[in-house]
Amino acid sequence: MGIYCPSFSKVNVGLKVLKLREDGYHNIYTLFQELDFGDELLFEKTENSCLITSNVDWIPTDKSNICYKAYNALKNLYPDLGGISIQIKKKVPIGSGLGGGSANGAAVLKEL
């Protein structure tokens, strides 16, 4: 059996857009509130690499997935990390501003 991890959403309580940076992004000042709602992740150890599956077909399951990127960042720092299977039960609507994908990436960093 794997390890279950909730991936809580957030809502912006306040947002102030600041100076445009040289990389094309803006600095921001924001205040987030965590919500008691979000996606669910299930982790299981594997031999090597990262395998991502989901209950929806519109989530990328390749190297472009933020969960894969989070795993890969840790794997580069800790080569003996081993592999992981991540099952994403998606509940947060895409593009909703609730931070679903980012929360999933953070959950991977936290759990690994």
Number of helices: 2
CATH names the topology as Ribosomal Protein S5, domain 2
Strand content: over 45%
CATH class: Alpha Beta
Shape: globular
Q: What is the mean predicted local confidence, pLDDT?
A: 94
The helix/strand order is EEEHEH
Strand-pairing-aware structural class: alpha+beta
DSSP strand count: 4
Rg result = 15 Å
CATH architecture: 2-Layer Sandwich
Kindly describe this structure.
- The two termini are 16 Å apart.
- The chain has helices at residues 66-77, 100-111; strands spanning 3-20, 26-46, 50-54, 83-89.
- The chain has one domain (3-7, 36-111): Ribosomal Protein S5, domain 2.
- A hairpin with a 5-residue loop joins strand 1 and strand 2.
- It is of the alpha+beta class and 112 residues long.
- 21% of the residues lie in helices and 46% in strands.
- The mean pLDDT is 94.
